[in-house]
Design a protein that fits this description.
The complex is a heterodimer of chains A (224) and B (697). By secondary structure, chain A is α+β, with helices and mostly antiparallel strands. Helix content of chain A is 29%, strand content 9%. Chain A starts with a helix and ends with a helix. With 697 residues, chain B is α+β, with helices and mostly antiparallel strands. Chain B has 27 helices and 21 strands.
Chain lengths: 224, 697
Amino acid sequence: MSEEEKEEKKFLQKPTSRRDFLKKSVIGAAGTAVSMSVLGLFTDSAEARAFAVAEGIVISDPTRCTGCRRCETNCTAINDGKAHPYISRVKVGRNYNFGENGPSIAYWNQNGNFGDFTIVTETCRQCEAPRCANACPMGAISADSSIGARVVDKDKCVGCGRCSVACPYDIPTVDPEAKKSTKCTLCGGYPTCAAKCPTGSLKFVPWKDVELALVERENLIKNN
Amino acid sequence: MPKYKGWAGKILRVNLSDGSVKAEDTNDYLDYIGGMGIGYKVMWDEVPVGVKPFDEANKIIFAAGPVTGTGAPCTARTNITSLLPSNPQHLIGDGHMGGHFSPEMKYAGWDAIIIEGKAPRPVWLRIEDEKVTIEDARKLWGQGIFDTTADIAGIMGQETQVAAIGQAGENLVNLATIMSNGNHSAGALGGVMGSKNLKAIGIIGTGSVQYAADREDWIALNDHVMSIIGANNQHVVPSTPQPWAEYHDPASRWTAQEGLFWGAADKPVETGICEPENINKVGYRTQKAVKDHGMIAEDYTVRMGGCQSCPVRCHSSLEIPELENYGVSRYVMNTCMGYWSHYMAMRNMDEKSGFLAKTLGAQLADDYGLWCNYGQLGRDLNYAYDKGILKDVLPAAEYNSIPWDKFEAGDPEFLVDLYRRIAYKEGEISHLGDGAAWLAERWDFDEDYWNDEAHHLWSPMGYPLHHANESNGQVGSLINIIFNRDPMNHSHQNFLGSGLPTKLLKEIAAEIWGSEDAVDEPANYTPMNRAKAKFAKWSLVTCALHDSLTVCNWMFPMATSPLKKRNYRGDTSIEAKYFSLTTGIKMSEEELYKAGERILTLHRAMTVKQMGTVDMRNEHDIIVDWVFDMDPDKKPFTPGTIKMDRDDMEKAKTMLYEELGWDPETGAPTYDKLVELGMKDAALELGKLGLLPGNVQ
């Protein structure tokens, strides 16, 4: 296998973290530089199709999240009729113990329950030019007509997982039981995760306020 | 495929002696629901009388029930069953932990993990859904729990949930924990894992837990619980007067109020007014740091924390830079006795040093995996020190090497030295980790150790009281005699501590147990009556049920609520609704309580079998003397004392035995009761052993 093929293979493998993704995509995506800015990943490819923006997105306040993960099972209760955190569109569990980069040698000063207690909850950004939708070979991901959430058409989805690989935040997840991809639908404009969050950490933020909210979130996560 | 929803359908059996891994069918255990019930059934069927906790033939069972993993509020408990090393007769018992471990186990497709045998060298168990392997743990052996967890997550993936032991468990300290998520520990059984050379279990589960209900009904049930729910321990009134609240009680754990903050959050988070039915504020109701440490803790509070699925956050996460002076992380998290037990191992402290002792002790004990025996370890140290016993039993060189100056000065650093010695079994003083009964025998404690209320002992089996005669007299006392360690039972305590006026509690008591007489004014007790026996039975049965479903007995049963519109009535049928909507098996409250009775009675039968006597009343259900001899100037059942009366307590035992259908004379399960509960095999086995009351064959 040539070096190029190896890199291509690596790129297609599911990244284990966002940092991993950035590293891989910088190498893999034909030399395209990826912006590190907060919103850079919303529109990181010139060829990508952009959709009309969603009305807003769900964002977690890291100072208020206590890691109860009720959002995960509430998400799959309303969307899937079962308890299934692995496919929840809100991701709390995977960063719960050690933060988004996993256990480091000095985990006690990193995020997570074994660190500074910051829970890094990941939510769907409903990107303007969504990598999940652009990566989908079946054209199964599109903006819904009511609120503009980028949603998976279950009839078209073949469960290949390219959307999972493409997403910088590892949000779309192929349900290992239904063999279909899942991603945040914004629950038609009334996200259940936020409505039932026991500390009000999760909020539905209107699009015009999203950038500011994400910048603040990033700062709170970094500011141990 | 599982027969019903809720259960994962499979039980994992791992034999560490021969390295075999098997999947078994959960359907064989459905009568025992899950959790504690599965644990007792496996122990009854498979571990013969005479096996000791650290023998290869002992087993240890990690189990959850059908409701765990569904996301219903307060359902993330893990029940761990084995033989108790600290119990002087090595009787059966459980440790319990919250956190995120058992939901992950369910998502991986397992209702329980049975560990048997002994590995030839240190191992850890790796579970990724149906893939299970036994891994080499030689590099992990000798490490604390925090590093072990991080190492395993480094190997398996950051989303891994880990249950691990520290050095205390490795070194077969009787008082050792099994720990998950850094601050959720199951007491008493860490040494059993150590004896099997099993350092940890790591789990990643990518599957679901299914429920039978359709999504609307399921969400409606969850919303209902979110409206009934109170603060920690189902306290349903705030601790301070608030605009929405008709009542308040300074002892309530509903401490949220205006001007009270999570003071060390990266931006200010005010707990504020958390009116009932506001779902988005339930997580602020319990500011547990100030409850456990006083107002000094407010400025150090990063947030609250707790278990998967639970909106009530009963653990406090603190950032205390001074902790780094002792070589531990500045970030510490725990709750209740997880902090307090370390204070009890000290003396002569002021507010700040007491705060540091609690939090430093938590860091050390949680990493070593050292258990406090519900605060008894520290009291034992102080007793032996004050009595001059330590000078007698410790070699002079050892005695002189211990920094008693720090102990006397109230310097928390004393704990750094003390806990290391216990966790590594260094020297004679490490026998503090044996447990009270073993220690009292080894160091020849006087009768006053048992008979002075100051030392908090409850049972000659070496456990202290845990909401006993101070909790509604005979009711708490009865609850404290049935299990083989401190009872870990909060059913009665949640009700009594709800914060509602006694008059209201009496009304609710009459609805549940048939008479207002079930509840007395605090420290103003009446003699035993039938309603109190029913209250005690209800507490014991619901506790066994909760540890089998598995739901949190620190929140359930929710007999009261914060809702004036319900006249503060809660809903004791929630557990039955959880069970029915999850599994699809329609079960009434009464029917489900019958299953709880079955599990409790199996515990009793196992205890009878192990002790080789039916005379539970006189051989097992013993209460130490101070309970009857305290307050010498006062008579029982007079205002201002929690003193009990010996004859009245014997009457209380009789009534409880009757309520449970056990032999009223001995307190042992009868043939008829065992058969009625569907345990004829157990009845026949006990009959063969001559262990049925009246010696029925």
